[in-house]
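Work Package 3 (structural annotation) set out to generate three-dimensional models for the target panel prioritized at the project kickoff. During this period the team completed the workflow that converts sequence records into discrete structure tokens, so that structures can be stored uniformly alongside our sequence database. As a representative example, we reproduce one entry of 217 residues exactly as it appears in the project archive.
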Amino acid sequence: MDATSLKYISKIPQKIDPSTSLVILIHGYGSNEEDLFSFANELPENLIVVSVRAPQNIGFGGYAWYTIHFDNNNGKFSDIDEAKIALELLSNFVDDIQEKYNISTDKTFLMGFSQGTILSYALALNYPEKVRNIVALSGYLNRELLPSELEEYDYSKLDFYISHGLVDQVIPVEWAKKAPVFLDKLGIRNCYSEFPVGHGVAPQNFYELKKWIEDHC
């Protein structure tokens, strides 16, 4: 499976010039490309917004980037091999979309939700030369998907907006809190916010991330 097999929908501004930024939306487990795309019309008009569909069809209009195994003894855990394959697919997809619209790394954003956030962290920290700004919603940083020699990478241009619901019943807020601590140790710019919601994006959360994107375009 190559990057061209990943389906996506997009919103393209009438004019694309050197000031145009690209936002790639990466949905969560069991969702699809239409989910985060609902934000598209609320984002700055000069943005290219691309929302990509995960490769695994799990039925009822839902898709997954990788399998989450549910086991009565071990709780739930991620299929790391599948996640790494998904990571490479997304990496190639970013290359293809940047080339298609002639968008530079400096003008490239990722916005992930849940499983999409896990992969957004992994993509940025494995390929910091490909993206610049990352919006990480309701997810966590999975160390199993990160490089073993982090000190060998140049993370000086990365910047993260992270948010999480205080009563998230899917991914505990305690998991999310570890990300800014981890990023701080690497000297990576980040801001972290919590909101009194579950596994979702509250209106005030969206207004804040929208302002963050506007400030970083």
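The radius of gyration is 16 Å.
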